[in-house]
Design brief:
globular
Length: 133
């Protein structure tokens, strides 16, 4: 109860981050789905104020069982909820982990980590990035 009372006193609309919330979902589209080379990542579910910057972190995995968070690639995108990650970043990676943060008035708020596994589509050369729970 004390924690709730503390938040009521400090989590007001006057706070610059009161209207901010990190993304609650991240989707990944492969080239056959998006028409772009590489992986198209799209964040959704976020609430942002007037000044926003999205930062995407990508962690290629050597196999589908790995969960290492190193090395990473990091991209900033001034105001867009989507970003195209070059194919070279995840070349030969059967899985990658990603998260996105929003910079809300100087405070960085992070989403949870999302893991995507490469899944072939039938006998074609196309594949999808399936969200792994």
């Amino acid at each position: 109860m004390a924690l709730l009372a503390g938040c009521l006193m400090t989590c007001t609309k006057d706070s610059p981050t009161a209207d901010c919330q990190p993304a609650t979902m991240l989707t990944a589209q492969a080239p056959c789905e998006s028409g772009y080379p590489g992986v198209l990542l799209r964040a959704s579910g976020q609430q942002v104020g007037s000044q926003i910057q999205f930062v995407y972190e990508i962690y290629p995995q050597p196999d589908t069982l790995s969960n290492t968070l190193s090395p990473k690639s990091r991209w900033s995108n001034a105001s867009d909820d989507r970003i195209l990650v070059p194919e070279s970043v995840i070349t030969d990676a059967p899985k990658f982990t990603a998260r996105v943060s929003v910079n809300c008035s100087g405070k960085e708020l992070y989403s949870r980590y999302f893991a995507f596994v490469k899944r072939p589509i039938g006998k074609s050369l196309c594949y999808v990035w399936a969200l792994q729970n």
